[in-house]
Amino acid sequence: MAKKNTPSVSPSHFLGFVVFSLCFFVPKSVLGVKKELRFRKNGQFKILQVADMHYADGKTTSCLDVFPNQMPTCSDLNTTAFVERMIQAEKPDFIVFTGDNIFGFDATDAAKSLTAAFQPAIASNIPWAAILGNHDQESTLSREGVMKHIVGLKNTLSQVNPAEVHIIDGFGNYNLEIGGVKGSRFENKSALNLYFLDSGDYSTVPAIPGYGWIKPSQQLWFQRTSAKLRRAYMREPEAQKGPAPGLVFFHIPLPEFASFDSSSFTGVRQEGISSASVNSGFFTTMVEAGDVKAVFIGHDHLNDFCGKLTGIQLCYAGGFGYHAYGKAGWSRRARVVLASLEKTEQGGWGVVKSVKTWKRLDDEHLTAVDGQVLWSKSPAAGSPE
């Protein structure tokens, strides 16, 4: 998000009507397609979230909001170095880029900037995925063009949109399934479900100012995908009593992110919540689905908190990129998410028992901060680790 001084608008419930068709809807399992995602033999699956790189033209692009003595040598390459450091330090199983991957206005060639921005992930041979923010399309490619370019890059599991959906708003709506440990009783089940949605850029409705939002067609796709995954998880073999936990990734915060004060979240809030000026109802949709445990976004670079509302953790990542606005002296940062399986009575790996998170700062030691349990099968979720 570009830093703007815009008046806040009280969230109001938006009722929209969209004509769309979902033909023969069957969510496509990723297990066995391209590079499969599954829990490691140690029963863990680690995700690195990178928000708001704002990459432009590489070494010729200057940094924003750093100390004066840092300016002469600071560029997009500092962002690249930070991604590389995070990959080396955390050794994630999967990397998620949650939008504003490039800052379109300053990117001379969108395709080149996108490829350069994702290069550390490409070179690592670690599977990765990306969604769009509100700035990715402001260079030489449309939103559809940006997403198609991303999908064509090496090692990505990104999708332009679900192949089985006839009409859906936006670009970059898809889901991925994380299989159980190879050789375990749950190897053919998705133990953890990841949902990715395009939260849009700006409103296209003249009477509604501000940012975009997740549309009814996207919400219907999410509902049907969640329901299909629930049915698969709760049937034999190894039928479960409830759904597998789900994690949701998009860029622009929902109005519900404004529900917290400093006593009810972990992290910091240093700027306003720049959500759409209408409430699309997607938070309620997620609550009704019953499987979502946490949401991960970007957009507001100076916020990095997680707060729990109606059973769902709402988490900012904090600003990552050096060509994005920030705050001198407040380190750029990344979020790490770790899902862990429980042991069965027979000693093998079972279902997910907990989802934890922490952030790392781009300082000398990649300092880890704000470790917490986001969700667990016990009632202690949300507490510090």
TrEMBL record:
Keywords: Glycoprotein, Iron, Metal-binding, Secreted, Signal, Zinc
Annotated signal sequence range: none
GO cellular component: cytoplasm; extracellular region
Any one GO MF annotation of this record: hydrolase activity, acting on ester bonds
Matches recorded under InterPro entries: Calcineurin-like_PHP, Metallo-depent_PP-like, PAP14/16/28/29
Localisation per UniProt entry: Secreted
Matching CDD domains: MPP_Dcr2 (cd07383)
One protein family per Pfam: Metallophos
KW Amino-acid biosynthesis (keyword) present: no
Cofactor entry: Zn(2+)
Domain Calcineurin-like phosphoesterase, first and last residues per copy: 45-301
Protein family: Belongs to the metallophosphoesterase superfamily. Purple acid phosphatase family.
Assembly behavior: Homodimer.
Protein name (Swiss-Prot/TrEMBL): Probable inactive purple acid phosphatase 29 isoform X2
Species per Swiss-Prot/TrEMBL record: Populus euphratica
Species classification: Eukaryota, Viridiplantae, Streptophyta, Embryophyta, Tracheophyta
Encoding gene per record: LOC105126221
